[in-house]
Design brief:
heterotrimer; A mainly alpha (311); B mainly alpha (334); C alpha+beta (599); A: 311 residues; mainly alpha; MetI-like fold; flat; C: 599 residues; alpha+beta; Dipeptide-binding Protein, domain 1; Dipeptide-binding Protein, domain 3; seven-stranded mixed sheet; four-stranded mixed sheet
Chain lengths: 311, 334, 599
């Protein structure tokens, strides 16, 4: 297992390099300089000055080598858009917040989603099933920003106006109460995924031969569900949690925007809009490392729950 | 198992088209689901043991028996019809101003969905928006299909070095946040309908490539494929006649879910200002317009109807996709 | 022992830095390590003034300011005009009053020689204007010599150095190439240096600035944010990149307020600067700048709590009606015609707009009042380039005739062209910046497009561009039509006609249109000292560009604000508009007071 983990980690290094290279090349292919976003009132000469200052006048392969060299030493450079602040500074203060929110959202999604999915599968085509399918579909048919606005309006505006003040606020990230609504908005879509996925995976297992056999052997329904169905159907569900956490843990542009949360999710969009190359690369690499780590973890967990898999 | 397992899911992952947070569940969920199920030794044999000739007829009958699937199918067909006949049904042109002084009028009998900030009829715009959404949804999936299936098939059928190379490339693209990639392309080419579905397609094919590869990997070692090979069939014809038909189920289902995902991503792009070119309406830019904080409070109808349109379409495609999966999967036939 | 630990901490910090942990992260580790060894005395120095006891400010001495939509990038205006921090932390030589006149700030008086080619600024003597919260230093003429040189030095990459190009040799120095030995070579190959700049400190309190020629509007430039100074000692001690980032170094500033704390993406807190020349008239003891995106601001104004609340806010089109109809909220509304214009710029190089008739038709086909109304009161029709309230605004019925709205005239203009009767239009695209919904850019653009369809049968698509692509694409001058805004930087017609439409410049031309007579007039206006004569020059320029339809003025931006009822002494201009803190007028916090705040 250790050897397997090691080989996966070693394999990941070229993948990361390739990710950086692909992003780098596409970024350089797109026209314009990162300093174009400064303002249209800046002259070409000034932009050339800035490019020289940050070494962007050098050939692209040289820039890439310099970038990778610095990145290996943990220096991701100056954020061109927020200069003179460095990418490390910015990510260092925004990533923990996104991670925190992402962790809560993932927990919320797993607990509620798996429960809903399980109930739905056991009571297939009963009202619990329909309810959970409806909730799931509603949750993922609604973009997270719409969901966010609706939650704010309901809990922070409409209910307080009508005499029910639960203490929710319109935004910010100061007190634990501020965590609740964003967690729901961010966790809703993964919740729906997990619920639907648990349901279908469970139904699959319930219909399978060995469960039929277990039933035929006269085991009690609860025992069948817990011992056989749960265990076998949760394996594929576990594989989903990793990527979900990777996606949600690196922040969401929309949820952070709506709730005014100082996380790093915004850079998935804003760094593109202003062509902040160092920030784009950092975001890509962080996401990649995070995703790989989560998947490795999931695979290891997978091996633990499913004894048929050996590395 | 020791070798193939990590290769089946090197980075795993769900499709992140719209927003890391929206984490569109469907396409990839199915990709994973189908592959995951196929991997279970108890189920694999059963699948191929079935005669494939009656599959489509059976599936169709099973689909029609499934109430939710019928509802889904109806919604999808309704939307396609509305989109195609929008110019005949819509009382106003797609960007026609009814009266600028009546901007943001609430829904009424005259204008069932109300008017937008420019005084345009939201009902008409939803109808025309259906055209854009469906074009984006369908054409992006066509591109996904055209790129993803050949690459996945090649990797899965040939295996070895080809497989390794292709899948490493897929891993790389897969690990880059999708929204970021789409934005990169759109920044490069500019916004607009064509560029958007091109970008969506170019970014979205990796999921299906993986899915197809997994299928091919599992199927190429099956007895009937070996039988075909022994009886002298060439590689291409084996792929076309034996393996591809048996991989169709997950492909079709994944595409069914890819369409609403694309519609969603277009909405996200519009929200950040690089979507369809106005004044042409798309549900995405209508949601973006309506979701400005002020309008949610003062004119919720601007947000409500496009959100309902997207929601209903998602609902339709989901029900249909679920039904299709059940219907095409013979195990469900009890 | 304490010294030893300090040394260890310093080494540890370097180690952490080398692996990319920032100072803040390091501080957490260091604080833990230090607490463990009970050597708190050695660490206290590191914690800095942020942890110092906060002086108590009463509810009527506190203000929740709507200044920051995003996290500031730094406080170094001297290098970057758009640092997006609170503008009242710094003061220049001059500033603007609510009527946008340049008035004394650190310069108590200022005068020019006869032809306005040399300007002298007399700085308030023996002041203690600079402060980092604990120490003080005087603001002197030398500060501005240093600062202007720093901004113009091509090594520093100050993106907005162009604002100082009226100073003698400024452009030459800024456009020179730095050599490895520390010297500079100008475009013609001659050596140039900061010493060549026309900036001289006659003594500590007298600054003499020599212009490239007569520049009557130079006080307007000096009063603008771009001329904010930087403290030489801090730049040199902490580094050009770090001195204005606060955090681990104290921020030296010379404005009416000092930075007290900066919690990134959440809150900036200010306290008054006791050494500022106007300190005795400032009533606020504490200013909170919660960092709130524009979309959430109105909710923070109405429902906000703690430091995430606002005492004033911009009201958008969606909320304006609600405010106007509510008896209580309508009392809080304030209006301001912002010094900024929205205009439509056709390219006279690209079909169909290469034909004057087509441009004329378009100019007659747009009802400006309708465009203004569609914003629900956030715009007012424009007929000339310089906005209402700024010197150079032309309230001239004759000018308004040139491009007046008249659909019949519009169709008549097309007679004889291939588009007669509104037929045969090619594919036409109008380009604009993405994500300017805050200014209703999209709603107005959609209405213009609808009007062109209605009145000319011309079908136009809108292409939006993200920030990064906008500038390079715009400067290619390959767009058929551009929907573009111009916010005045300094309130002078030269900023409008010269900086926007002057065509004899090497780069940064926004439009293909050019006209020699127009350019000559702009040059003439630049060096004319007499205001009356200048006004006449710009009137002619306006007429030329409008008759040739080099641009179409559409609307001026209007801002609607809500101020809480306890905010008093709001600055008003001579039109009776409330002028809030912005890009030009930057002294709101110094002028207002708070009375009877409801907690």
């Amino acid at each position: 297992m250790l050897r397997y983990s090691l080989s996966r980690i070693i394999w990941f290094i070229p993948t990361l390099l390739a990710m950086a290279a692909v992003t780098f090349v596409i970024m350089k292919l797109t026209p314009g300089s990162p300093f174009d976003a400064t303002s249209e009132k800046v002259s070409d000469f000034q932009i050339a000055q800035l490019e020289r200052l940050y070494g962007l006048d050098k050939p692209i392969h040289e820039q890439f080598v310099v970038y990778i060299g610095n990145a290996l030493r943990g220096d991701f450079g100056v954020s061109y858009h927020a200069r003179p602040q460095t990418v490390n500074e910015i990510i260092g203060r925004t990533f923990p917040i996104s991670l925190h929110l992402g962790l809560m959202a993932t927990l919320f999604a797993v607990v509620v989603g798996v429960t809903l999915g399980t109930l739905a599968a056991i009571r297939q085509n009963g009202w619990v099933d329909y309810l959970s399918v409806t909730v799931a579909i509603l949750f993922y048919s609604m973009p997270s920003f719409v969901m966010g606005f609706l939650l704010i309006l309901l809990f922070a505006v409409w209910l307080p106006h009508n005499g029910l003040d639960l203490g929710f606020r319109v935004g910010g990230w100061e007190a634990p109460i501020d965590w609740v609504l964003p967690t729901i908005a961010l966790g809703a879509a993964p919740l729906a995924t997990l619920a639907r996925y648990t349901r279908s995976s469970m139904i699959e297992v319930i219909r399978s031969d060995f469960v039929r056999t277990a039933r035929a052997k006269g085991l009690s329904e609860n025992r069948v569900v817990i011992k056989h169905v749960m265990k076998n159907s949760l394996i594929p569900v576990v594989t989903l949690i990793g990527p979900i956490f990777a996606a949600v843990g690196t922040g969401s542009f929309f949820v952070e925007q709506v709730f005014n949360i100082p996380g790093m999710g915004k850079f998935f969009v804003t760094s593109m809009q202003v062509k902040d190359q160092t920030m784009i690369l950092a975001v890509v690499l962080i996401y990649g490392v995070f995703l790989a780590a989560m998947n490795l973890l999931v695979d290891l967990v997978y091996g633990v729950i499913d004894p048929r898999i050996r590395y | 198992m020791a070798q193939s397992q990590p290769q089946t899911r090197p980075l795993g992952g769900i499709d992140l088209a719209a927003d890391p947070a929206v984490a569109p569940p469907t396409a990839s969920e199915l990709a994973q689901g189908a592959a995951g199920v196929q991997r279970l030794p108890t189920l694999a044999g059963e699948l191929v043991g079935r005669p494939q000739r009656s599959l489509w007829g059976d599936a169709w009958r099973r689909l029609l028996k499934n109430k939710l699937a019928v509802v889904g199918l109806t919604i999808v067909i309704l939307f396609i019809v509305l989109a195609i006949f929008a110019p005949l049904i819509a009382p106003y042109g797609q960007s026609e101003v009814v009266d600028p002084r009546l901007a943001r009028t609430d829904p009424s009998w005259t204008w069932p969905f109300g008017l937008d900030p420019n005084g345009r009829d939201i009902f008409s715009r939803i109808l025309y928006g259906a055209q854009v959404s469906l074009v984006v949804g369908v054409l992006s999936q066509v591109i996904v299909l055209l790129i993803g299936v050949p690459i996945g098939a090649l990797a899965g059928y040939l295996g070895g070095a080809v497989d390794n190379t292709l899948m490493r490339a897929v891993d790389v693209i897969y690990a880059i946040p999708q929204l970021l990639l789409v934005l990169l392309f759109v920044n490069w080419w500019g916004s607009g309908l064509t560029n958007i579905f091109l970008a969506l397609g170019l970014v979205g094919w990796v999921t299906i490539a993986r899915l197809v590869r997994g299928q091919f990997l599992a199927l190429r070692e099956q007895e009937y494929v070996n039988a075909a090979r022994v009886s002298g069939a060439k590689g291409f014809s084996i792929i076309l006649r034996h393996i591809l038909p048996n991989s169709l189920t997950p492909i079709i289902v994944a595409l069914t879910f890819g369409i609403p995902t694309a519609i969603f991503t277009e909405a996200a792009l519009s929200y950040v200002g690089v979507g369809i070119m106005p004044p042409q309406p798309s549900w995405g830019n209508m949601v973006a317009d309506g979701s400005r904080a002020g309008y949610i409070q003062s004119d919720p109808h601007m947000l409500l109807f496009p959100v309902l349109a997207i929601g209903l379409t998602m609902l339709g495609f989901t029900f249909m996709g679920d039904g299709l999966r059940d219907a095409l999967d013979p195990k469900g036939n009890d | 022992m304490a010294a030893q630990l300090n040394e260890q901490l310093r080494l540890l910090e370097q180690r952490f830095k080398s692996v990319g942990l920032d100072r803040r992260g390091f501080m957490k580790v260091a604080a833990g390590a230090a607490a463990g060894t009970m050597m708190v005395d050695g660490v206290a120095r590191y914690v800095g003034p942020a942890a110092a006891a906060q002086d108590e400010a009463g509810p009527d001495e506190t203000f929740y300011n709507f200044a920051l939509r995003n996290d500031p990038v730094s406080f170094d205006w001297n290098l970057n005009l758009y640092v997006n921090a609170d503008v009242e932390t710094f003061s220049g030589l001059l500033m603007f009053d609510a009527d946008l006149n340049a008035i004394p700030d650190w310069a108590e008086t200022f005068e020019s020689n006869e032809d306005a080619s040399v300007w002298t600024f007399n700085i308030r003597r023996d002041n203690q204007g600079w402060s980092n919260g604990t120490e003080q230093r005087p603001v002197t003429a030398g500060d501005f010599v240093y600062s202007f040189r720093r901004q113009l030095d091509p090594r520093n990459g100050a993106a907005y150095a162009g604002f100082l190009f009226d100073i003698k040799n400024a452009e030459r120095f800024n456009n020179s190439t730095p050599n490895d030995d520390g010297t500079y070579t100008d475009a013609e190959g001659n050596p140039v240096s900061a010493e060549d700049l026309g900036i001289v400190a006659v003594d500590d309190w007298t600054l003499e600035v020599t212009m490239e020629g007569p520049r009557g509007y130079f006080p307007q430039v000096v009063a603008y944010l771009a001329a904010y100074p930087a403290p030489q000692w801090a730049v040199e001690e902490y580094g050009s990149d770090r001195w204005a980032l606060a955090g681990d170094v104290p921020l030296w500033s010379n404005g009416p307020f000092l930075l007290d704390s900066w919690e990134h993406d959440v809150l900036v807190t200010l306290k008054p600067n006791p050494g500022h020349w106007d300190a005795e008239n400032i009533t606020l003891k504490r200013v909170y700048d919660p960092i709130i995106p524009a979309e959430s601001a109105i909710l923070a104004y109405e429902q906000g709590e703690g430091t995430q609340q606002l005492d004033w806010v911009n009201i958008d089109a969606a909320n304006l009606t609600r405010y106007q109809e509510d008896p209580e909220l309508s009392q809080q509304l304030r209006e301001y015609v912002y010094p900024g214009i929205w205009m439509l710029v056709p390219s006279n190089g690209i079909p169909p707009f290469d034909q004057l008739e087509v441009r004329k038709a378009v100019s007659h086909a747009i009802d400006r009042t309708r465009v203004a109304n569609i914003t629900n009161g956030l715009a007012i029709e424009a007929f000339c380039m310089v906005p209402i309230g700024v010197f150079g605004f032309l309230d001239d019925p004759e000018l308004q005739e040139i491009q007046k709205f008249d659909p019949e005239l519009a169709m008549e203009a097309l007679v004889g062209t291939e588009f007669e009767g509104g037929q045969n239009w090619p594919e036409i695209t109008m380009h604009m910046r993405a994500q300017e919904e805050v200014f209703n850019a999209d709603i107005m653009a959609n209405d213009i497009v609808a009007q062109l369809q209605e009145n000319l049968g011309m079908s136009v698509q809108i292409q939006t561009w993200p920030e990064a692509s906008w500038r390079p694409e715009l400067f290619k001058n390959e767009w058929q039509m551009v929907w573009i805004r111009w916010w005045s930087d300094y309130p002078d017609p030269n900023n409008s006609y010269g900086d926007m439409f002057y065509s004899r410049k090497a780069s940064g031309k926004r439009q293909a249109w050019s006209n020699a007579q127009f350019d000559d007039l702009v040059n003439q206006g630049k060096s004319e000292a007499d205001p009356e004569a200048r006004l006449e020059i710009y009137r002619q320029a306006e007429q030329i560009i409008q008759e040739d339809v080099g641009y179409m003025p559409i609307v001026y931006r209007v801002d609607q604000y809500a101020f809480k009822p306890w905010v008093k002494d709001l600055p008003e201009n001579r039109q009776g508009f409330t002028v809030p803190e912005g890009n030009i007028y930057v002294r709101m916090l110094s002028d207002i007071s708070v009375e009877g705040r409801e907690e």
